[in-house]
């Protein structure tokens, strides 16, 4: 089983909500659509489900063109951000409802509901009404209803967004196991890079209706092919620095000189963007290659064991993540250190030209 | 500007009662000093919104008093309390410009244009809205709209406190970083008392100087982010703060030793003997656990799952039926699924009936 989008576009008025997307998802895999609000996640899911028809391009299921086939005639299930359950039905009947509509025989319904209830830890809740459940259990019920259909395609549109932080954490940990125990194609939309990384699977990074990269999630995170993908996958945000390379010198606003080390000498003279992660900025030098920079503290955020120092370097904002508790005053000038071995470099077309030296540096 | 004191406050939505179970908010006492940054943190239904509504005047508590400095304002309506409130969804006038929106609270109170203009421009600069001052709010993005909401809360210099009710819920992750740091910066600049309600520990810890953790209508700990992380006073705080939360497992306590499933660990402190009926648990954060080669000094565990989340790896290990989360940067030294689990005893806590107990250093 396989879902394939070929050069799919969705135009609403004069605006392209989806532009030229080609993707292939295999059965038994989890595929994450990651991007900010309005990047096209929901539009893409609606096209996959058959709720909308593409303006151009085709949708194929197991090689068969299903482009014009409406949602009722496809074997798809969808879970939304708002957990939707029937308030006057028990949890059992809520989960069973799609099977009742499909006129599945009663003993088979009982068997299949019991199976998903076991998987989603709802076994002891089946006789209750949805209002008697916690938010997490209500969303699990909605998930169970999607899974019980044993649909070929299960679409989850930010399913954890309305849950408490801790409940989200728990469900995130369980979901990969649930996904792996069924043979469906799972598509999961989220705005949160950390959620994508926790869930694993494959990720399609979305920006303004286009897929900027698709591949195994950790690979897209560690080897983003372009700057926008790197930014989409980063939380805390990636630090970036626009530089110009000229005559064996790499300069930022003729103020900071970046020594031409590692793989940088091979780059032709041009404009580049250097990017690196907040935990790869340091308060003390980590190697003899470290580059010292003066920075002005904007504000410091302290979590229980780490500090996020927001800094300003000649009008550019960066975040430095340091272990331990550091209290700097607002506007204090501090020395910070960059490590060139941790640099990603993107060329003037925002394409990746240099990656960090080792995987551990990612 | 005022200190806010909650004196013997309790609230029951069904009216005065002698049954403690009727109270959504159990009796509590708290003082918030003028100019502090506070967070009320807890899961849905813990009573944090009830408490916020008591401060804002939307609710009159069943018992107790609310004092601004020495004035009892328990029964004073919201509009006379001189507080500003910022909600989950931006509250702004879509057809007004950014300038008009920001000026509105001042205009309402009869300030002259000469007073209003410099203040609006100053604040717009701080919020990064100066380019959009004469743009109608309806043309702006969700995060810009929430910035206007923040600005409307901050515009009056005389407010007693600014209350935030989950203000970043609808904001995309990358923009959250910007808004969060801006809010903290504005707090440092203006010195208003700020009270921030959230279920998101990252927001609470990074924003507040002092976090009030609530659980089932009670305050379980008041402390700095560091204290909540290092020395949770209640197992709930250990679980709720940190991602993943603290590992809490049953143990047998013998002076300066604990036995977990029969395996002995020597602690840094000596603990008094506990009642035979007491529930005794050891608590250690995933960050303070490490994995060594099997048969080394440590608990013999089985590696169940490794999640690579980018900056570090979250490893789930099992000791018989007990699961532990371990956060480590590299797992390359491991072969097979057997490992030794090593505790950092300087960061290992003991809980008796869910409460932290102190030990004595030898």
In short:
The complex is a heterodimer of chains A (362) and B (362). With 362 residues, chain A is α+β, with helices and mostly antiparallel strands. Chain A contains eight helices and 21 strands.
Blueprint of the fold:
The complex is a heterodimer of chains A (362) and B (362).
Chain A: E1 2-12, E2 15-26, E3 30-34, H1 41-49, E4 56-61, E5 64-65, E6 76-79, H2 91-101, H3 106-119, H4 135-148, E7 153-157, H5 165-180, E8 185-190, H6 193-199, E9 202-207, E10 210-216, H7 217-222, H8 227-232, E11 239-246, E12 249-252, E13 256-258, E14 270-276, E15 281-282, E16 291-302, E17 306-313, E18 316-323, E19 333-338, E20 344-346, E21 352-354
Parallel strand pairs in A: 3-8, 3-9, 6-7, 7-8
Antiparallel strand pairs in A: 1-2, 1-4, 4-5, 9-10, 11-12, 11-14, 12-13, 14-20, 15-19, 16-17, 16-19, 17-18, 20-21
Chain B: E1 4-12, E2 23-32, E3 37-41, H1 48-56, E4 63-68, E5 71-72, E6 83-86, H2 98-108, H3 113-127, H4 142-154, E7 161-165, H5 173-190, E8 194-198, H6 201-207, E9 210-215, E10 218-223, H7 225-230, H8 235-240, E11 247-250, E12 252-254, E13 257-260, E14 263-266, E15 280-284, E16 289-292, E17 299-308, E18 313-319, E19 322-328, E20 338-343, E21 348-352, E22 355-357
Parallel strand pairs in B: 3-8, 3-9, 6-7, 7-8
Antiparallel strand pairs in B: 1-2, 1-4, 4-5, 9-10, 11-15, 12-13, 13-14, 15-21, 16-20, 17-18, 17-20, 18-19, 21-22
Helix pairs in contact in B: 2-3, 2-4
